[in-house]
What we know:
Elements: E1 3-8, H1 15-23, E2 41-46, H2 50-59, E3 63-65, E4 68-73, E5 100-106, H3 122-151, H4 156-173, H5 187-196, E6 203-209, H6 220-232, E7 235-239, H7 241-247, H8 252-260, H9 268-280, E8 282-288, E9 292-299, H10 304-308, H11 313-317, E10 319-325, H12 327-333, H13 336-342, E11 346-348, E12 359-364
Parallel strand pairs: 1-4, 1-5, 3-9, 5-6, 6-7
Antiparallel strand pairs: 2-4, 8-9, 10-11, 10-12
Helix pairs in contact: 1-7, 3-4, 4-5
Amino acid sequence: MGLSIGIVGLPNVGKSTLFNALTKAQNAEAANYPFCTIEPNKAIVPVPDERLYKLAKLVNPARIVNSTVDFVDIAGLVKGASKGEGLGNQFLSNIRSTEAVLEVIRCFDNNDIVHVDGSINPLRDIEVIETELILADIQTLEHKIEGLQKMAKGDKSIKLILDGAEALMKFMNDGNNALSYPEREKETLQLLFSDLRLMTAKKIIYCANVDEKGLAEDNEYVKAVRKYGESKGADVVKISAKVEEELVDLEDYEWVEFLNSYGIKESGLEKIIRTGFHTLGLVSYFTVGPKEVRAWTIHLGWKAPLAAGVIHTDFEKGFIRAEVIGYDDYVKYGSETACKSAGVMRIEGKNYVVQDGDIMRFLFNV
């Protein structure tokens, strides 16, 4: 499994510039006018993980395989998009399959860059975006309810789903997002949520896009976004899309010096991915050998058989046991053989909860 993030925001707030920087590829045209991005841009980006590279130095494998993140950048939303304003919401379906939504919010002043609403107001921008997402989800619910009404006659199980859908729509018509619906854990609602992939049921990461001056210290715009995110229980990440774009042509060894000149220690990509992992409760474990050193992404709390299934379903079905070495132990002793001799390799069964950074080897029989 991998992490997938949909990038949304108003037109001309730096989404495409950010996308270009994150993917290190100038395949999302960026320009100083609204609706520059008219087709969804998609990219698969390797997850930077220093632990992976340290393990590779010890093992010298034939290849290194990172976990990946799918980024999807869509056209900017405007107020009234659900009614056809701007480019409407025709591209929103492209982020329904993502696991999280990154809301890019402009948090800097620059008279040379046009704002679609004529002024900088991050909280207003957030309200516009989230209102349009709610309205788009309500339209999706309406279509679903129409279909369920035709199917519900004489079928009690369908009637239960219909009742849940109608209650959810009433809740959302009051301006609430699907994620906050108190009944969403009910089995019938889980089926509905899984089927519809509602956008407002996804976790949100607020991305405050600042200029160079805003990197070292939060400006008032960023402070407002952080306060809002805290009130919603959502993560906030601050980046400068313009600065990130300047990193694109630098060699990796030049990054550190460049970032340090702005008083920051990690790139926007690293911040967003780290925040995305935290938001969705994701961790990584590793498989290590002469052929490859590879990172695998799982959910925090997964037990060994389920984690093994990420490699191959047969690993989960025929799981017998797992050989486990903690990351710190592996780095300390330098090899699997040395870890065995030191007694730090463990044999774990079906109830073992995989920890972030575990080096795993699975034994299975199908």
